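Morning F.,

Quick status update on the modeling queue. The single chain you submitted on Monday has been processed. Sequence for confirmation:
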Amino acid sequence: MSLTKIIGSGISGVTVGNFITMADQWRLTGSTNEGSNADVTGTWERVDTSGWGGIGTGLTDSSGVFSFASTGIHLIIYTAEMFITSGDGSGSLTLDITTDNSNFNTASITSCGNSGGSSTTNQSGSNFFLFDVTNVSTHKFKFVTTSMGTNTKLNGSTSSSRTGFVVIRLGDT
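Structure tokens below.
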């Protein structure tokens, strides 16, 4: 039986074929942005842990600004593990996007905090965003820390993912 007979001829907009053509994963290689409200730059690596697998041509990184290899709807899922100092109410990691290769706007944010806590702690938070990439020259993203206390920092590692993200191209734009 053909796929058309299973789906039916009256359904429009159904895509048949390869659905996911790109999946990529990146992580911070070490702790960074301690007490700093700034772009997260220079410490990213594509995951290389044994058993890891990606699909297609992945992203490119230029000083923490990530570019896409092809247009389409891309799902970005990210996690921030933070070392939070005592009494630091909120440290945040924002996903900032641009559609004009210049002006970045916050698309999503994840926060961790330790208000009222008398000791330091590791906490993590996650968030996601569906990015409609219509032009690979102008549509990019980066991560930025905000509300970071004096000793609060993002945790990273070269052997396991602590702060990082996955991007999956779900389909055409």
